[in-house]
């Protein structure tokens, strides 16, 4: 994966029982992320996503091919929520 998404700096977030709760002051929306999307949110920092699938595979004890699909879906979900940018 060549993209390098970054969390929007103004989005507030906290981890509660493994889930990530986001508060977006621009939209006024609150989002709750779980599973691979929660892990992806915590990992993204503007660096390329290479290697993140291996971390997700290890964390959730899933095959690497599934972790790659989960990572891609999670990044797309975060983009659709408008809480990350490239």
- E-strand count: 5
Averaging pLDDT over every residue, what do you get?
A: 92
Name of the CATH class? Mainly Alpha
Count up the helices: 3
Structural class, from secondary structure content? alpha+beta
In the CATH hierarchy, the architecture is Orthogonal Bundle
What kind of oligomer do you see? single chain
Could you estimate the helical fraction of the residues in percent?
40-55%
* Number of structurally distinct domains: 1
- Low-confidence residue ranges: none
Distance between the termini: 13 Å
Strand content: 15-25%
As a whole number of angstroms, the C-alpha radius of gyration is: 12 Å
- Predict the CATH topology: Arc Repressor Mutant, subunit A
> What is the molecular shape?
globular
Q: Could you describe the 3D structure shown?
A:
The chain is an alpha+beta fold and 86 residues long. It has one domain (6-85): Arc Repressor Mutant, subunit A (Orthogonal Bundle). Helices cover 42% and strands 23% of the residues. It has three helices and five strands. The protein has helices at 35-43, 52-60, 64-81, and strands spanning 6-7, 12-16, 19-24, 29-33, 84-85. The strands form two sheets. A three-stranded antiparallel beta sheet has the order 2-3-4. A hairpin with a 4-residue loop joins strand 3 and strand 4 (29-33). Helix 1 crosses helix 3 and helix 2 crosses helix 3. The chain is globular. The two termini are 13 Å apart.
